[in-house]
Structures are given as structure tokens and as C-alpha cells.
Amino acid sequence: MGRRRRSTPGLDGLLLLAKPAGPTSHDQVAVARRLFGQPRLGHAGTLDPPAAGLLLLCLGRATRLLEFLVGHDKTYRGELVFGRATTTYDDHGETTAEADASALTAAQLQAALLNFVGALEQVPPPVSAKKIDGVRAHRLVRAGQTPELPAVPIRIDRLDLLDFTPGPAAIARVRVRCSTGTYIRALAHDLGAALGVGGHLRGLVREAVGPFTLAEATGLDALATLDPAGRRAALRPLRDCLGDLPRAVLPPEHWPDLLLGRALPAAEGIEGPVALLSAEGDVLAIAEGDGEIWRPRKVLLQPPSSQEA
User: Fold this and answer.
1) Pairing relation of β-strands 271-277 and 247-249?
2) Is 48 a catalytic residue?
3) pLDDT attached to residue 266
């Protein structure tokens, strides 16, 4: 088992990172660790290397709140090319089928898009991070195998056609708002198959994750120009990681019991998971309530000796 990374005190929060096309998400995490001097850093929602856009990074104590970020809906802007299908469902794979898409019209594409809105079953791309018997599918492909991935339930709330360029290799730009776990590469592939000409994804930008947008994000190059105080100022507070989790204020007189992991009176009668906050909005803990008591599940409150002066 790997050892848990030690956290640099005081460097806690959520970073909205603008990832460029090219590096892997893990590459970006590694650079951010060095830049902030914070070994304890994780991310929510991997972006493929060719994709750009919003990547959520959690630093320090915020890594304990990652589970509340990974389920957010996402918004993407993608460029789809019709007339060619590939092994990877994007333009980096080998061609598996080709056709002349000159006859495809914007009206036909718009009609086809309607069939991909709502609750769906989607088969992930064979070159993906999905696991089969504990092994990621892309590793099986590299080993010469052809993995068969089961369909998974997804949801597409909006699928808007932004513009369309007809031709033998017709090009469409779309915006997709979807549930987590949706592969836009698979959407391009399935759309091409439904239209009878094949299709693949040529470019992808993640524009939003839940309430967070790419317009609010900062790239690593820009962060590198800041001093430590400036980089610290780019971090959002822990409470921004909580999503729709119910919240309640825990009075200071109960903090000693919280630090000991003791059950606490549920003053507001909340049942299920709840975030316990200070009056100032600092996240103290995640607890489980039964209407009468709160049982601490994750304590983020720091003992007085570990807090900064």
C-alpha cells in the first residue's frame, strides 16, 4: 500500500484549473503539487490528454471532500467530424470505416441529435479508463486485446448544434450538458453510426463542472507568475467543495467533542450526510445525522496546536 501524502499546513482549498490540450490530467496535478508545495493534491474528473478545459483540483484538507465534486454534471463544447470512424473514437486512432458525408445536412444532424437527449445507455470507448477485472481498458488495448465494455447509464440534458460545415468530411460543433461518466467521444462515434457515415471527435473543451466554469479558471503558466500569496489567493474555500450537501452551524462549545469524534446534538434535526460549519462558514466536519445526533464521519477542524497563528 502507498503511504498517505503529508499535507502542507495552511494550503487547503479548491483550485479551478484551465487545462490545455496535450498534457495528461496527472501531468497537471504533478506540476501543481510542485508549484504550490502541497504534496496532498487530487483532482475530480479526468480529462483526456487531447482535451482542454476545466479541471478541479483539491489541495490539502479539500482532498477529503473530493467525493462531493465528482458527481457534478458537466458541460462540453466538442467538434465532431463525420465520414470517418476510428479505433479510439477520436482523430488519434486508426481508421475503421470511411464514407462520403457530403449528403449530410444540418437538418438531418439536428434530427439525429434529438435521439441522444435524455436517459441513455452508452458503451464507453475501448480506449478509456474503464476497468475490466481490475485492468483499465486502454491497457488491454495496448496489449493487443479487444475489450468488450458493458453499456452504462448516462444522461444528456442538452445537445445543441452550434454550427455545421457540410462536405465529404462534414464538421459539427456541439455543446453538451451531461451527467458525469458521459464520453463525448462515444457520442461522436454513435452519432456517426446512426447517420450511416461514421464519426469521431476532433476537439473537446470542458466548459463547466457543476456551478464552476472555465471562465473562472486559471492556467498553470499564469499561476507560475504569482508569488506564494497570490497562488494561495487563487484557492477557493473548502465550503465550495460541498455541492448540494445540507449545511448546519456547529457552535464552538461542541468543537472539543468533535475533535474527539464524539456524537453531537443535531440541533437542526437534519438526517443523512451534513456539513458542519462555523458561523464564519469554515468547514469543520462531515457528519451523519439521524435527526437527533450527528456522528462525525470526516473531521476537518484542526486542533488548536496545528492551526496557523
Assistant:
1) parallel
2) yes
3) 87
Q: What is the mean pLDDT of residues 195-221?
A: 98
CA distance 224 to 227: 8
Asked: is 74-207 a CATH 3.30.2350.10 domain? The reply is yes
Per-domain residue ranges of the chain:
13-72+211-239, 74-207, 245-306
pLDDT at 219: 98
> Which residues have CB under 8 Å from 190's CB, separation 6+?
116, 122
The CATH architecture to which 245-306 belongs is: Roll (2.30)
CATH topology agreement for domains 13-72+211-239 and 245-306: no
Q: Given 3.30.2350.10, 1.10.8.60, 3.40.47.10, 3.40.50.1100, which CATH number is that of 13-72+211-239?
A: 3.30.2350.10
Percent of the chain with pLDDT over 90: 77
pLDDT (mean) for 206-232: 97
Q: What is the mean pLDDT of residues 230-240?
A: 96
**Could you give the angle at the alpha carbon of 100 between the alpha carbons of 99 and 105, nearest 5°?**
120
Q: Give the C-alpha distances (Å, rounded to integers) separating 235 from 15, 43, 57, 143, 238.
A: 5, 14, 9, 41, 9
CA 251 vs CA 155, 241, 266, 280, 301: distances in Å = 40, 21, 11, 11, 13
Q: Which of the 8 DSSP states describes residue 211?
A: T
Regarding pTM above 0.70, the answer is yes
CA dist 121 and 118 (Å) reads 10
Q: Are 58 and 66 in contact, with CB atoms under 8 Å apart?
A: yes
Annotated catalytic residue: which of 48, 90, 190, 240? 48
Res 1: pLDDT: 40
How many other C-beta atoms are found inside a 10 Å radius of the C-beta of residue 261? 12
The pLDDT mean for the chain works out to: 90
User: Is residue 243 over pLDDT 50?
Assistant: yes
